[in-house]
Amino acid sequence: MKITCDEATEICDKNQYKEASLWERMKLGIHLFLCKKCGLYAKQNKMMSVCLRKLKEAESLKKHHLNQDEKEFMEQELQTKIKS
Amino acid sequence: MSVTDKQFLNPEKWVSSYADYLFNYTISRVNDRDLAKDLVQDTFFSALKAKDNFKGESTERTWLIAILKRKIVDYYRKINSTKGKAEVRMSFYAEGEREGEWLEEHAPTDWSGEIEKKIENEELAIVLEKCIESLPKKYGMVFRMKTVHQIETEDICNELDITATNFWVIIHRARTQLRKCMEENWFKI
């Protein structure tokens, strides 16, 4: 049941994506009960997730595309190869 | 797919039909416009060279994506092999009696002040982006795929040919380093 801070925080990270198993969450819970540093990490990690969610939302609104010049250039390059 | 659905390649139309789609796909993996452009261009070249291997059993698009995926994993292996490794900053003792314990200078410290306000601040995104940028390339790539682009763990592991264990170690190291970076550059200033 005893895990190191390295292991505990890894589970904590995994848990930010809701992918830690029940057993892992139990081990983490016990560790957090005993370890102040990791407790602080867990608290701040949640805040990091809130911040990261904003980045994710901003990204999901973006649409990346090539501009006309870039496409024309690609087209030309490809055409040369098709003909050769 | 039935025999009558047999697909044919039409390289003349590749750029107009698939360039944006492939580009978008690549950007969400490599997060670098120029690099993404090169990988897409390269994909078209490789596809052209290999066009006799196309059996017509999948669509043109699926076939092109398969080629692009190989380009992306090659890129990942490249950044994973050489310089990527030295840059990793460890947060825990790697050996000895204290193995797995926090290294003093990496342990979290209290974020005093108005944390809520700092989270709401518009400039947070800029600092956070810079912190992600400061991660070793391979960590940044895997971390972004998962956290920013929300690609499933299993898909990332398959695409980059890594194990789930390895994947979580990467995410863990990225997040500990990121927390530290945000502490120094945002939450404690």
CATH architecture designation of the largest domain in chain B: Orthogonal Bundle
Helix share of residues of chain B? 55-70%
- Strand-pairing-aware structural class of chain B: mainly alpha
Number of strands of chain B: 0
Number of alpha- plus pi-helical segments of chain B: 8
Q: Which geometry of chain B do the CA atoms define?
A: elongated
What Rg of chain B is obtained from the alpha carbons, in whole angstroms? Answer: 21 Å
Residue fraction in strands of chain B? under 5%
State the end-to-end distance of chain A: 66 Å
Considering DSSP H and I runs of 4 or more, what fraction of the residues of chain A is helical? over 70%
Find the biggest chain interface: A-B, 40 and 52 residues
Poorly predicted runs of chain B: none
How widely separated are the two ends of chain B? 60 Å
Q: In one word, what is the shape of chain A?
A: elongated
CATH superfamily of the largest domain in chain B: Winged helix-like DNA-binding domain superfamily/Winged helix DNA-binding domain
H/I helix tally of chain A? 4
Question: What is the overall pLDDT average of chain A?
Answer: 95
Compact description:
The complex is a heterodimer of chains A (84) and B (189). With 84 residues, chain A is mainly α. Chain A has helices spanning 5-15, 22-34, 36-61, 68-83.
SSE blueprint:
The complex is a heterodimer of chains A (84) and B (189).
Chain A: H1 5-15, H2 22-34, H3 36-61, H4 68-83
Chain B: H1 14-30, H2 33-49, H3 60-81, H4 115-120, H5 124-133, H6 137-147, H7 153-160, H8 164-187
Helix pairs in contact in B: 1-2, 1-3, 2-3, 5-8, 6-8
